[in-house]
Specification:
The protein has 95 residues and is an alpha+beta fold. The protein has helices at 7-23, 27-44, and strands spanning 3-5, 51-52, 56-60, 66-72, 77-84. The protein has one domain: YaeB-like fold.
């Protein structure tokens, strides 16, 4: 299935990876790898993961305190946010 990211979700991904990379060399790449693994899990079973507010779903990363918030549409999976789990939980609702 095709995956589309909201521009702000892409910015969140880049900002988080940069933050981790600044803390420890290679950790930003590890964050990106974890994001990609999480996306693959979503693509494999998009309806499986926890529903939250409306048709939105969320799948947490294993290693980092982040989750992907997404919705499933007939033609694509739409990533709305790469959300830190300990900050403003529903800031992405307008997307």
């Amino acid at each position: 299935m095709h995956v589309v990211s909201h521009p702000e979700a892409e910015q969140e991904l880049e900002a988080a990876a940069l933050w981790y990379e600044e803390r420890q060399r290679g950790l930003g790449d590890d964050f990106i790898d974890e994001f990609e693994r999480t996306v693959r899990r979503i693509v494999k079973e998009p309806q499986r993961w926890r529903k939250m507010r409306g048709d939105n779903r969320k799948l947490n990363f294993h290693r980092f305190p982040y989750a992907i918030v997404y919705s499933v549409r007939p033609d694509a999976i739409y990533i709305k946010a790469v959300m830190h789990l300990h900050r403003r939980p529903f800031y992405w609702q307008h997307r």
